[in-house]
Amino acid sequence: MKAKIAISTLMILLLCSTEQHAQSFTTGLTVGASTTSVNFSDLNSTLANTIKGNNIMGVEGGIFERISFEMFFIKPMILASYHTGTIGFYDNSGNNFKSSDFNYGKTVVPILFGVKILRYLRLEAGPVYNFIYSSNYSYDNVIKMESSGVGYRVGGNIELKRINIGVTYQGLTNKSYFNSNAATFSSPNELIFSIAYCFRDRI
Length: 203
Prior knowledge:
Layout: H1 2-16, E1 24-41, E2 51-69, E3 72-90, E4 97-117, E5 121-136, E6 148-160, E7 163-174, E8 184-198
Antiparallel strand pairs: 1-2, 1-8, 2-3, 3-4, 4-5, 5-6, 6-7, 7-8
């Protein structure tokens, strides 16, 4: 709920500034490292109701375009990420724990709305679309993962000339509304640390 309020507030502030002409366009490259938990639900399997994994580590990298309106900005991004860790579940007896190595790759497309404050600090938030293009685990007969989903991203970064250092919190859910055989997959609490390089502004 707090994330939704923050996103709504930033969007309203940005819309209020659209009467002014865009001042600059800034292209940048970003890389980051993350940690998250994952959860599979709606499995429709006799083996388990849910499968979970903690301490899933990830890396991401991509490009962004920042469109500035005075102190406000819009920042669309295109990112590729890769995650790896261990997932597991207790069988229906509740006594036997089964685990598997797990890795997946995805394309992430955030559209962030933000504000620049205190000269060096930028706060940003917005919706995110993601698409899982590869996955590997031992439960192929249990999990049919939904590949596409949506979520949100909230964070901030500090500008050190052309270098930006950022911390971001992201939550994503891939849920099928049309295929009852596809499990819901979520990474609800991903924490991302990133560094970006910004090229020269263009008017």
